[in-house]
Design brief:
Protein name: Cell wall hydroxyproline-rich glycoprotein
Low-confidence stretches: 1-48, 381-415
Number of domains: 2
CATH topology of the largest domain: Leucine-rich repeat, LRR (right-handed beta-alpha superhelix)
Subcellular location: Membrane; Secreted, Cell wall
Shape: elongated
Main location: membrane
Number of strands: 22
Bound molecules: 2-acetamido-2-deoxy-beta-D-glucopyranose
Structural class: alpha/beta
CATH architecture of the largest domain: Alpha-Beta Horseshoe
Radius of gyration: 24 Å
Keywords: Cell wall, Glycoprotein, Hydroxylation, Leucine-rich repeat, Membrane, Repeat, Secreted, Signal
CATH superfamily of the largest domain: Ribonuclease Inhibitor
Order of helices and strands: HHHHEEEEEEEEEEEEEEEEEEEHEEEH
Distance between the termini: 22 Å
Pfam families: LRR_1, LRR_8
């Protein structure tokens, strides 16, 4: 299920994080007993004892100056040089020097802070985590973040960031979890996004536009969510290049056209496939019957035609098959009675002769008079700016308040 995937990503990211930070005990102390942790820490090290904490001080003071509303008083104690005691700021032993402490994490989830991100944040070069979910931050993501060569998780979801895709994230070698959802980013997605070793890409609910890149490959993403953007074009056959990693593909409401390529059936790890609310035509590729792990299949609100194939209906893990609001005209075998297989389904508003709540005969005739030839359907995919995004699960453990997701992937995780 989606939530268990989130959980596994979260655990994976935590483990990698800990490897990077090599200071598990302090993190756990921070998590379970913030005060004790800080007291303990200040016994061992003077907070201003090193140049990197001093740079962090400069960066955080610069940030404080461009925060113009902080209704929950998150930054009220951001005074003085002891940055490790600042609310939402987490220190750890440096990865390259066990004798010094550095700022390794920022967690201001749900702080409702209004303001900007200043260039000085580039001084925080030891950061592994930035969690800024659900604030009112605006402006752009500064290019100076290219300095954050250890950054592992970047979550700026549910803010008011604008501008083109923040290409600075492409320069971050350790980035594993990228969450840009629920902002106002616009324009094309860089194809390089799908050539990075990012595990989870969440870019849904922005204003990205462009076709899905014709060539997808190189990414090791297990979750890709690009829903609710204004993409166009079709899903390219190169989607098959994601077969070894992709488990959840959500392309809801992204103006997809053309037929579903049979290569979708090569994504053998897929557990969730949701292409609903698009303009996809043609049949369900029979290859989908090879998706042995598929649990959720949503094809609703498209222009699909033909037969609902038995091979899909007998998939061993299928729990919910939604294909309403299409033009399917026949259900093969057991597909006629999914209830008998314990599969939740929705088959309304199709052209299924023996089922209730179908389209009118006229509507069905009009569509079926224009058969679709998927070999002729032109696949408009972009060579350059492409459209494929994904969101990451909210990373957790380090931070006191992990972000709960209302609905695992699309929800903006409002409190
Ligand atoms: C924040 O601090 C101000 C001034 O001290 C206080 O009036 C307000 O109630 C505080 N807000 C919260 C959410 O604690
Ligand atoms: C990048 O980090 C280094 C220290 O690691 C610092 O000296 C430099 O000023 C930073 N650059 C930016 C653009 O913040
Ligand atoms: C689809 O996305 C657009 C923005 O691109 C949004 O305005 C619209 O409400 C979405 N439709 C659905 C059904 O979610
Ligand atoms: C099945 O999936 C659809 C589409 O994702 C969803 O709206 C519906 O609530 C699900 N049904 C059940 C019973 O989980
Ligand atoms: C579907 O199958 C169930 C159990 O196998 C049976 O009770 C039910 O009558 C069938 N429904 C239809 C419409 O054939
Ligand atoms: C739809 O097509 C069928 C078969 O071609 C025909 O018998 C029927 O009259 C048509 N119905 C309408 C409403 O056009």
């Amino acid at each position: 299920m989606a939530s268990s995937l989130l959980c596994s990503i979260t655990i994976r990211s935590l483990l990698v994080l800990l490897l990077h930070l090599s200071s598990l005990s302090n993190y756990l102390a921070a998590k379970h007993n913030q005060h004790g942790y800080h007291r303990h820490r200040s016994h061992n090290h003077s907070p201003t004892s090193n140049q990197r904490l001093h740079q962090a001080y400069i960066a955080l003071q610069a940030w404080r100056r461009v925060i113009y509303s902080d209704p929950n008083n998150f930054t009220t104690n951001w005074v003085g040089p002891d940055v490790c005691s600042y609310k939402g700021i987490y220190c750890a032993t440096a990865t390259d020097d066990p004798k010094i402490r550095v700022v390794a994490g920022i967690d201001l989830n749900f702080a409702d802070i209004a303001g900007f991100l200043p260039n000085e944040l580039g001084l925080l070069s030891d950061l592994a985590l930035i969690h800024l979910n659900s604030n009112r931050l605006c402006g752009i993501i500064p290019q100076s973040l290219t300095n954050l060569s250890l950054l592992y998780e970047l979550d700026v979801s549910n803010n008011r960031f604008v501008g083109p895709f923040p290409s600075v994230v492409l320069s971050l070698p350790m980035l594993t979890y990228l969450d840009l959802r629920y902002n106002e980013f616009e324009g094309p997605l860089p194809p390089q996004l799908f050539q990075k070793k990012i595990d989870a890409i969440f870019i849904n609910n922005n204003r990205f536009t462009s076709a899905v890149p014709a060539f997808l490959g190189g990414t090791s993403a297990s979750v890709v969510v690009i829903a609710n953007n204004n993409f166009k074009g079709c899903l390219p056959p190169s989607i098959a290049n994601l077969a070894d990693t992709l488990e959840e593909l959500l392309l809801i409401n992204t103006s997809l056209t053309g037929c579903l390529p049979p290569e979708v059936g090569y994504l053998y790890k897929l557990r969730v496939l949701d292409v609903s609310h698009n303009k996809i035509v043609g049949p369900i590729p029979y290859s989908l019957s090879g998706l042995a792990h598929l649990e959720q299949l949503n094809l609703a609100h498209n222009l699909m035609t033909g037969i609902v194939p038995q091979g899909v209906c007998i998939l061993p893990n299928l729990a919910n098959f939604t294909f309403s609001y299409n033009f399917f005209c026949e259900e093969e075998g057991i597909c006629m009675n999914l209830t008998s297989k314990g599969i939740k389904y929705d088959d309304r508003r199709n052209c299924l002769p023996e089922k209730p709540l179908q389209r009118s005969q006229k509507e069905c005739n009009d569509t079926l008079e224009h058969p679709v030839d998927c070999f002729q359907e032109c696949c408009i995919a972009s060579e350059g700016g492409g459209a494929f995004g994904r969101a990451t699960p909210f990373a957790p453990a380090l931070v006191p308040a992990a972000t709960p997701l209302l609905s695992p992937f699309l929800a903006p995780s409002f409190p």
